[in-house]
Amino acid sequence: MARIAERLGPNWFGRGIPYVKRGPLPGHLIVIEGTDGVGRSTQIQLLSPWLELEGYAVSNTGWTRSPLLADTINEAKAGHELTTTTFSLLYAADFADRLEHQILPALRAGFIVIADRYMYTAFARNTVMGVDPAWTRALFGMAIVPDLVIYLQTDVERLIPRVFDGKGMDYWESGMHLALGSDLYDSFVRYQGELIAEYDRLAEEFGFVVVDARDSIDTIQEQLRACVAGHLSKARAASAPPASAAPASRRRRAGVRSSRRS
Amino acid sequence: MRRGKKKDLLTPTTFCLLHAVDFADRLTYQIVPPLKAGMIVLADRYVYTAFARDVARGVDPGWVRDVYSFAPRPDLTLYFRVPIETSLERLLTGRTKLKYHEAGMDLGLATDPVESFRVFQSRVLDTYDDVTREFGLPVIDAAADIPTQQRMMREIVQEMLHEYEGDGAHR
């Protein structure tokens, strides 16, 4: 029954958005979480085309990628005028914009939405920055609960070579804004260590599927695909009407259709 | 924020959050430091405006209170209550055009801006009444003449400040 209720409308994380229209969300929201430089975008670039070949419509969304706020956030970061509160609110606004204009419409249309980071990134970062975790969670009360969260888990030792192979250590990813010290490397180790510890804690609290991000790209991708395929087949089985109850389920579907029209 | 407003891209939720960003910024730079220095801060609108306006736009009343829970409770809040007709009359004579969001045009309540303003602002005023009751805010009749309003306001403020020892240097 819970499954049917979920399909009839958004499963809000908190208080929700009252004016968002009800009605079924036949799509799937799949979140890939993990700290900076862990390989999320590489994995998503491999996962999306695979899902499309499997016959699914895929929509990608990522942290701070809203047309409304991406520029504003980058400008504000450059100016270093933000407090932890204004930072959190801007991220929440970016998130809400993508939720209302992209994620919900795509889910309504039956897409698989792959989110590169989700509200858990704000939870982890804010806790490390000393923001009240209860406030951060209440702020994201307008979010919907994802169908599946896959957490790419690593440790700082393995993260360091990856970062040097990439674009190097940057100001924000090293947590220099927290003024933990003047040494970029030391600050990176400390900040990322705290972030990863927080992600690990969130993984338990919210039941993330944990994938070891220290494996090879191909091994990680295999695990992601197995995990996503498992979720999709479970969802298919849950939504398919049992053969013996066909007339009842037809009535139920008719009910769903009429509620969508209203 | 101007960019978002102009393109009519804002939803009630992003509208609320961006105003909260602006408020949090003013709180950090303009409100908290003078308060810590012992000064009196006069704020033209505060979180209660968001509670009335954003709820009238359709966001969850509990959520908007959660969003603003970082704001300190003011020592005194005065609510100037005005009937919708007076409000409409003042705004229409004061300037030629009603602002898009102020008239609630983004909510699709009416195609005519004046009619939309009437419907939306009536809703805002009703929500303000709920807010003043919830927080026990003193109400001043803003339909009265200005000297009368000012007399009432000074009485309440003086009463509240009778133990305040601001040194003249701060004023």
How does this structure look, described?
The complex is a heterodimer of chains A (262) and B (171). By secondary structure, chain A is an alpha/beta fold. Chain A has a single domain (2-261), classed as 3-Layer(aba) Sandwich (Rossmann fold). Chain A has ten helices and five strands; from the N terminus they run αβαβααβααβααβαα. Chain A has helices spanning 2-7, 40-53, 70-79, 84-108, 119-129, 133-139, 156-165, 184-206, 217-239, 246-261, and strands spanning 28-33, 58-62, 112-116, 148-153, 209-212. Chain B is mainly alpha-helical and 171 residues long. Chain B has one domain: P-loop containing nucleotide triphosphate hydrolases (Rossmann fold, 3-Layer(aba) Sandwich). Helix content of chain B is 57%, strand content 4%. Chain B contains seven helices and two strands. In chain B, strands 1-2 form a two-stranded parallel sheet. In chain B, helix 2 runs antiparallel to helix 3. The model of chain B has no long low-confidence stretch (mean pLDDT 89).
SSE diagram, text form:
The complex is a heterodimer of chains A (262) and B (171).
Chain A: H1 2-7, E1 28-33, H2 40-53, E2 58-62, H3 70-79, H4 84-108, E3 112-116, H5 119-129, H6 133-139, E4 148-153, H7 156-165, H8 184-206, E5 209-212, H9 217-239, H10 246-261
Parallel strand pairs in A: 1-3, 1-4, 2-3, 4-5
Helix pairs in contact in A: 2-9, 4-5, 5-8
Chain B: H1 2-6, H2 12-36, H3 47-57, H4 61-67, E1 79-81, H5 84-94, H6 113-135, E2 139-141, H7 146-160
Parallel strand pairs in B: 1-2
Helix pairs in contact in B: 2-3, 3-6
Structural features:
heterodimer; A: 262 residues; alpha/beta; Rossmann fold; five-stranded parallel β-sheet; globular; disordered C terminus; B: 171 residues; mainly alpha; two-stranded parallel sheet; 7 helices; 2 strands; 57% helix; 4% strand
